Amino acid sequence: xxxxxxxxxxxxxxxxxxxxxxxxxxxxxxxxxxxxxxxxxxxxxxxxxxxxxxxxxxxxxxxxxxxxxxxxxxxxxxxxxxxxxxxxxxxxxxxxxxxxxxxxxxxxxxxxxxxxxxxxxxxxxxxxxxxxxxxxxxxxxxxxxxxxxxxxxxxxxxxxxxxxxxxxxxxxxxxxxxxxxxxxxxxxxxxxxxxxxxxxxxxxxxxxxxxxxxxxxxxxxxxxxxxxxxxxxxxxxxxxxxxxxxxxxxxxxxxxxxxxxxxxxxxxxxxxxxxxxxxxxxxxxxxxxxxxxxxxxxxxxxxxxxxxxxxxxxxxxxxxxxxxxxxxxx
Length: 330
Fold this sequence. Notes:
Organism: Bradyrhizobium frederickii
Protein name: Nitrate ABC transporter substrate-binding protein
CATH topology of the largest domain: D-Maltodextrin-Binding Protein, domain 2
CATH superfamily of the largest domain: Periplasmic binding protein-like II
Keywords: Signal
Number of strands: 10
CATH architecture of the largest domain: 3-Layer(aba) Sandwich
Order of helices and strands: HEHHEHEHEEEHEHEHEEHHHHH
Strand content: 15-25%
Shape: globular
Strand order of the largest sheet: 2-1-3-10-4
Structural class: alpha/beta
């Protein structure tokens, strides 16, 4: 018995002396500078959710979905959080990228202006001035919104400029509305002016298409299947945890990046994001569980209005996979 106890003790001493297995270092590049939508990633890191899956997460700000998609395709980032339709345009041209989870399954696109201008419905846009950024994702879908709502280009004026110019146009009164995301540009305007913004959401008028999701390089996915599963498991849990504690999730952004915004608008921006996680078909399901129909509808819309090559309609499943998502309750 003494020999057995001694042997067990020796084994335990050896195990204790062995270094813990190193966590896998993973780089997640965002679609843009940090704002409320990004709260789950920072919260998941702060709460140790990624660490529990053996992942050492580095979050990098992005400079647009197209640039982040290029970084993932080139393997300079392991994962990207991007506008999935933007990723589709790159993939159809040969970029080796795929969505491993679609988080925003309802479009955040909208036409927005100051709430005190009482622009509440498409009819109210007549006679107004709309600020746009040529060739961005919203401007490409804008003609579909006009078609769905019976508006014509001649019903309003437009001014064009980059993202900041578009914001300044509304802030300074040179435009009544701009095309933007409900949880992004609206919060930037409120930060700058303290005034509430009202969005006319594209999704409320029958424009059903996906938005942001996680993407990875197809070769990276094949070579690191277990890591991809662990990353998607952690990210799913991070989103679920953040949904329950929006303000704490928003605070985690500021804890990591004190210049990342203001707590009130970061929280509000994240709260505006949460309803976009699910459609009627995915209500009650865990985050990222996009349906085949939602993706097919999105591809069809992008082909007709968003400049996506028509051959994309041949195989919508080439752009995404749910295979690496955690099962219900896991």
